[in-house]
Design goal:
Blueprint: E1 2-3, E2 10-14, E3 18-25, E4 31-39, E5 43-47, E6 53-54, E7 63-72, E8 78-87
Antiparallel strand pairs: 1-2, 2-5, 3-4, 4-7, 5-6, 7-8
Length: 92
Amino acid sequence: MDQDLHGQELTVIGKLPVFDPKVTIAKDKAAASLSYCTDESKASTKSRKTGEVKGNPAGTDPEVLYVISMGKNAQGVWQAVSAHSERGGCAQ
């Protein structure tokens, strides 16, 4: 998975399993959220500029909770409105 983390030009390599997905839809069905956890213990980042590979710093929780807020656009199509992540935020 290629991603530009704040201009860092990083590629995630290794295994990055996703677990505990949840979808919550608002009563008016105009908003929703998607949450899921990842386990980064067997994943690393690789710099596309230098080729340097880095794992998680020692002592950091490898599990990360992601929450994606969704909304419907004018055509009624769901789209991401915001995203938030929290290291160590996954329920055990």
